[in-house]
Amino acid sequence: MAGELPGAPVPGVSRPGFRDLGRLMALMTGDEKHGPAATSTLDALWVLYDRVLRVTPSTTDAAERDRFLLSKGHGPMAYYAVLAAKGFFPEEWLAGFGSYDSPLGHHPDRVLVPGAEIGSGSLGHGLPLAVGTALGLRAQGLTDPRVWVLIGDAELDEGSNHEAIAYAGPAGLEQLHTLVVDNVSATHGWPGGIASRFEAAGWSAQTVDGRDHEALYAAFTAPHPGRPRAVVARVEPKNA
Questions:
Q1: Strand order across the 147-152 sheet
Q2: What is the C-alpha separation between 136 and 139, in angstroms, rounded?
Q3: Burial class for 55, CB neighbours closer than 10 Å (0-12, 13-18, 19+)
Q4: Which of 103, 132, 139, 140 has the most CB atoms lying inside 10 A of its own CB?
């Protein structure tokens, strides 16, 4: 991983930027797009892959890579657009989104999508898997890789997440980062706001504007020694 920085340009290769993501997402059509779920994650995903995550198309199997788990897998269009923009697979794949013989299904498949760490789409599983991933890395003595998981605010209606939150704080899983994209779609919510749920379990937590790239970057890179980190990215309500 040494020498490879997030978003580092590849000599001789011009990659799409954030302004190209709309064009890339428009290549994906069909009736199962879950458009609001996908677009809610667009800015946060871009900042992560462009400036934070230490993984590139050439290091998807490297032991020292950062791991990113998309738990909100039912709306993967933004994820696919960002992966294509960063060169994990060709743009030409996007037009086949959801078709029978396409590797880009309506839910990401880790054995078909380069760079995908998990198969996802059934909500409530990504955060527990991220906890297990962080524990596995710790058990192997790998202290540099960071684990990121993106969940939606509605996923916090699932009890499995609360078990993971309750465990990760006291366990001091410093390498674990949870990004909650809050588009106000939860049924139950949480008294005091989402960040307070994580803080009650000993996490470092911050709420930011999910469309503000500099605020996202500052929250993603803030120190949190000895504790897991949660960033709540607020975006426009799903049904606005």
A1: 67-70, 147-152, 176-182, 229-234, 204-209
A2: 5
A3: buried
A4: 103
d(CA 55, CA 93): 21
Coil, helix or strand for 122?
A: coil
- In degrees and rounded to multiples of 5, residue 145 shows phi and psi of -60, 140
Instruction: Examine the pLDDT at 29 and tell me if it is beyond 90.
Output: no
State pTM to two decimals: 0.91
Longest Cα–Cα distance of the chain, Å, equals: 51
Rg (CA), the chain: 17
pLDDT at residue 10 in the model: 56
- CA-nearest of 188, 180, 228 to 208 is 180
In the numeric block, the tokens 């704080």 are attached to 169
Q: E strands along 5-96, which residues? A: 67-70
The whole-number pLDDT of residue 203 equals 98
Q: pLDDT band for position 43 (50/70/90)?
A: very high
Tokens of 78: 């933004």
Q: What is the pLDDT of residues 106-124, one digit of tens each?
A: 999 999 999 999 998 777 7
For the segment 15-36, the average pLDDT, to the nearest whole number, is 84
pLDDT score at 11? 57
